[in-house]
Amino acid sequence: MKLIITQPANAAHANPDAAARQRADLLARATVDQMQAALGFLSVIDPEAFEIAFSVVTPAADNQPEDDEAVPVCRACGAQVGIFPEHGGLDWRHYQGDGVTSGAQQIYNPGHVPEVTWCLPDENPEEL
Ligand SMILES: [Zn+2]
């Protein structure tokens, strides 16, 4: 069997931090059309990743978490966490406030890196 590899595959993953930074840079330079096309493509090749990404970064009225829907929280402190590209990156950040209204979140730094886990509203993240 002959393998056909048209692009070097290792370079993007040699340094995970650098790869993440490259993706963040790419996102920062992308036009709205490019982002739409990229998300459209992602929704086809990895629907689960698409749904997670979309539910985290675009809280909207029609995307309100239901009572039985898992939400991202920090295992260490139990706070809500989210990804806010408009605040300069794709890192998880602690936030306070309404998790469903765009722009209503207050990002803060509790002094530790979020330990992201997903839990249902009636679960205690510290017990996971
Ligand atoms: Zn925390």
What can be said about this structure in brief?
This protein has 128 residues and is α+β, with helices and mostly antiparallel strands. The chain has helices at residues 16-29, 32-45, 47-57; strands at residues 71-74, 80-83, 92-96, 106-108, 116-119.
Q: How would you portray this structure in words?
A:
- 30% of the residues lie in helices and 16% in strands.
- The N and C termini lie far apart (45 Å).
- The strands form 2 sheets. A 3-stranded antiparallel β-sheet has the order 2-3-4. A two-stranded antiparallel sheet has the order 1-5.
- The chain has 3 helices and 5 strands; from the N terminus they run αααβββββ.
- The model has no long low-confidence stretch (mean pLDDT 79).
- The chain is α+β, with helices and mostly antiparallel strands.
- The longest helix has 14 residues, at 16-29.
- The chain binds zinc ion.
- Zinc ion binds at residues 74, 76-77, 79, 94, 110, 112, 114.
Q: What topology emerges from the helices and strands here?
A:
Layout: H1 16-29, H2 32-45, H3 47-57, E1 71-74, E2 80-83, E3 92-96, E4 106-108, E5 116-119
Antiparallel strand pairs: 1-5, 2-3, 3-4
Helix pairs in contact: 2-3
The chain binds zinc ion.
Residues 74, 76-77, 79, 94, 110, 112, 114 line the site of zinc ion.
